[in-house]
Amino acid sequence: MKYIDLFSGAGGLSLGIKNSGGDLLFSNEIDSHSVETQKLNLKKLNVDPKKVISSSIEDLHKLIIDKEVKFEFQGNIVHENKSSKSYYKNKGVLNEEVLDNLKDIKDVDLIVGGPPCQGFSNAGRGKKSIATKNFTDYIDDPRNQLFKYFLDFVEYYTPKIVLIENVKGLATSMNYRKLIQTSLENTGPGYKTISLILKSSHFGVPQNRERIFFIGIREDVVDSEKLIFYLPTIIASKYKKEICLKDAIDDLPKIVSNPKPLNTDIKNEIPIGQKSSFGEDISMLDYKKLIRKKTNYTSLINVYRGNEIEPKKLYNHKARFNNENDLKIYSLLSPGKYITNEENYAARQLVTYSTEKINGEMVFTSKFVDKYFKLDPNKPSKTITAHLKVDNNAFVHYGDIPRGITPREAARIQSFPDWYQFSGPFTSQFKQIGNAVPPLMAKALGEIFYDFLNHGVDHLIDNQKT
User: ∠ at Cα 452 (447, 455), nearest 5°?
Assistant: First the structure.
């Protein structure tokens, strides 16, 4: 099953597709740290890292397709997020040899990707409302239009199957859900389509993450319409037992909060295992010594094409600095309860921002009541987000020692294997993980596509769980 991954990020979706039997033709990503993460881990799988193309989708589109892209804004106001412009300053440069290879690709089975979704997210909408001082109109975002470039690549390569992933908020964003689905139906030779909101915890991922997936099967593919009809029940047959948070991260070594701000330099790390260790980006001790008894979940996520891969070291398990007041709040929080809950009364009195003292009590003035939240060890985690790059207040570890979760713990919650190493600064690691598609979820969808292409839709129907 030959596939292309556009807007590929750190490679979570791609890893799941590869694990289901996919053969990567190329992936494209603009963020340099995400590109390095992909290349580093492709080497571990003996896949050519040159298959990761570092460039903006606009540059890649112009040099391969060179066609005008017409935007169709759905809102009353258009607002561009300034932070999104920073990516373009360090974008890669494509050479002629790479371009010739990409232009000559034929017989693509699958194109997958997640065009940037921040413009549709609840947090993104809130920030745009504040920036424009407009709290009534729907505010559009140029990033919402990048799916147009994606569909042009679909038209160029005419894959048998298309998969687009995006935030659940897109489903209620004016007419964008209908626009994307209709646009896919009318792309190239035409596609039979469906859009589904899927929950990652249904696929054995310890996280209540919901995302919308657009799936298209090329009209001339045998039984394309039949697959679309049966797809919801076929996907449901892939559902797994729910995994709680402690089963996902409890076997990781215990560490403390980083004692100093901006203390991310490797030379300041204290080896994991020592009492005062706040973790390491790459552990001094071997993985086997640090994780002596893996959970069933840990073994599962480390499996690639039937074989468990055990890394030599533990990667990205490093805590960030939390100030004294935040640590006090962390210690007082009740797991799984929002800061407004009665059980968090004492913690709420220590919160100093987005609050107002009324009749002697701290009352929240912000709608983001999950600003402080301790994860419940006995339930799946709430959605891991890219906001982790800013702080850990909404993702407090449930253990006895107050601290925020580490990139490795966030990666575990996203179902990334322990051998999957994240490159770049500490904050970038969190962002890459928060923006990714859970590999276990991607693998389940990839298996459906692989079986359909190789064995037909009746094989999938016959093998559904009763």
Answer: 110
